[in-house]
């Protein structure tokens, strides 16, 4: 265990130290692009450097997000309002060939949670649902109260997840997508667990996937 803790610290330090040079490469490449406006071939090379740097930057951000302790800022807010806001933002952000149906049972549901983190988590589950349906389809987001829990179910009609992959989806870097990082679900689970909740993914009948989030109405507490 001490070895793992040491290794964790080392990864954290490495990722921190890599950030500055990435910023420098990004900054200088942007300047270069301006100077190369009349040289299309060199300009396109600079474009490629910038794209690769941005991908590296996003990886570093994800690794840091996953590895550093989760700090939650809990406030007593209406979860129904949050769900409505997330669904609105998500529908506005994307104009693809899918439809989002929202089914909310409670009129209000006030309990302590971290608004920003919870938004990130729900956005990510919606993002995965959309990405699983490249040809389009329907997504349903339902919110219910079951006992002492708020339960959110997000169902899609996408490709689904094989039994084999279901065992790996919580592992950082596991992805079946091109150009993806494989950090969305591990980070989302960390946020839900930080609220003392649970996140599971299962088959949605014969087609697609259902993500189930259970959050205790007593709220989470700080820490990872
Ligand atoms: N709704 C879904 N339908 C089908 N497969 C899914 C769904 N959600 C997750 N998966 C599978 O789980 C894998 C891991 O998901 P995760 O969100 O962690 O990473 P990602 O989406 O591949 O990349 P990133 O989220 O970092 O952009 C996905 O690559 C995909 O194979
Ligand atoms: Mg994802």
Bound molecules: adenosine-5'-triphosphate, magnesium ion
Named CATH topology of the largest domain: Heat Shock Protein 90
Uncertain segments are: none
Shape: globular
Total count of helical runs of at least 4 residues? 6
* H/E topology pattern: HHEHEEHEEHHEE
- The H-level CATH homologous superfamily of the largest domain, spelled out, is Histidine kinase-like ATPase, C-terminal domain
User: What is the CATH C level class of the largest domain, in words?
Assistant: Alpha Beta
Task: State the gist of this model.
The protein has 224 residues and is α+β, with helices and mostly antiparallel strands.
What would your notes on this structure say?
This protein has a five-stranded mixed sheet. It has a two-stranded antiparallel ribbon with strand order 1-3. It folds into two domains: 2-67; 75-216, Histidine kinase-like ATPase, C-terminal domain (Heat Shock Protein 90), CATH 3.30.565. The protein has helices at residues 2-35, 40-67, 79-93, 115-131, 163-166, 184-194, and strands at residues 75-78, 98-104, 110-113, 137-146, 149-155, 198-203, 209-216. The chain is an alpha+beta fold. Helix 1 (2-35) packs antiparallel against helix 2 and helix 3 (79-93) crosses helix 4 (115-131). The model has no long low-confidence stretch (mean pLDDT 92). The chain is built from six helices and seven strands; from the N terminus they run ααβαββαββααββ. 21% of the residues are buried.
């Amino acid at each position: 265990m001490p070895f793992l803790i040491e290794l964790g610290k080392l990864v954290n330090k490495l990722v921190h130290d890599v950030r500055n040079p990435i910023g420098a490469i990004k900054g200088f490449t942007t300047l270069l692009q301006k100077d190369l406006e009349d040289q299309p071939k060199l300009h396109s090379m600079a474009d490629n450097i910038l794209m690769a740097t941005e991908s590296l930057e996003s990886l570093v951000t994800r690794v840091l997000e996953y590895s550093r302790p989760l700090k939650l800022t809990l406030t007593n807010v209406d979860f129904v309002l949050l769900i409505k806001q997330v669904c609105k933002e998500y529908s506005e952000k994307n104009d693809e060939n899918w439809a989002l149906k929202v089914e909310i049972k409670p009129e209000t549901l006030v309990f302590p949670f971290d608004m920003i983190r919870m938004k990130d988590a729900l956005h990510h589950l919606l993002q995965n649902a959309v990405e699983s349906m490249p040809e389009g389809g329907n997504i349903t987001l339902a919110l219910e109260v079951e006992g002492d829990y708020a339960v959110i179910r997000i169902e899609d009609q996408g490709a689904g997840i094989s039994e084999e992959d279901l065992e790996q989806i919580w592992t950082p870097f596991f992805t079946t997508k091109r150009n993806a990082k494989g950090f969305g679900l591990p980070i989302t689970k960390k946020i839900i667990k930080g609220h003392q909740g649970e996140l599971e993914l299962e088959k949605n009948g014969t087609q697609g996937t259902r993500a189930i989030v259970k959050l205790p109405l007593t709220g989470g507490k700080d820490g990872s």
